[in-house]
Write a structure and sequence with these properties.
Blueprint: H1 2-50, E1 53-58, E2 60-68, H2 73-101, H3 107-139, H4 154-186
């Protein structure tokens, strides 16, 4: 009776390790897909913000007001953070492919998880700072006499608001990547 329990336990171990390998392979494929989607979102956000500009004539066509992303250091920080995270996501894709092929790799997954956390913090800082400026552009602040500029620079405000969507989608996807890596690491004994 005791020998039978040991044999059953051994069979259960090999079956569970096989199912863990399948789960980790599925997690690795989902990791790869999320990295590609986050790459597209952050790249699109950086491109949308860099190409954002609008000019409005003031009395004559020779005297114009302009709004460009580099007028505000916060938007420049937003573009730089999105570019850094985009580059990181591009360079992390080969490691993600490696995890699909060899789903039992733990050290590289831990390294990716660490850098995913760093990039999540960086991207969240850039997107949140830009979101505060976009909010001020839309609403203004009567207390300090900052006027809302979106009534005049409508196209500029629409593009900056749209670029925030890809960046915040990237933050959500990076958070999901961290959870996926934690789940894959927890599956190993």
């Amino acid at each position: 009776m005791k020998a039978g329990a040991i044999e059953l336990g051994e069979v259960g171990k090999s079956t569970s390790s096989t199912s863990r390998g399948g789960v980790n392979k599925g997690v690795s494929i989902l990791d790869f897909i999320f990295r590609i989607l986050a790459f597209i979102g952050t790249l699109g956000s950086a491109i949308a913000m860099v190409t954002t500009n609008e000019r409005l004539p003031f009395f004559t066509r020779f005297l114009q007001f302009r709004a460009e992303y580099d007028d505000l250091p916060t938007f420049t920080f937003f573009v730089v953070t999105n570019a850094i995270v985009t580059g990181y996501l591009l360079f992390s894709l080969p490691f993600s492919i490696f995890h699909i092929i060899r789903s039992s790799a733990q050290k590289t997954r831990m390294i990716l998880m660490f850098f995913d956390m760093v990039m999540l913090a960086l991207l969240t800082a850039g997107a949140s700072a830009a979101a505060a400026i976009v909010y001020l552009a839309h609403k203004g602040n009567a207390t300090v006499n900052w006027l809302a500029i979106c009534q005049q620079f409508n196209s500029f405000c629409e593009r900056t608001s749209g670029s925030l969507i890809g960046s915040f989608a990237g933050t959500v996807l990076l958070a999901l990547l961290i959870m996926l890596s934690g789940f894959a690491l927890a599956q190993h004994p």
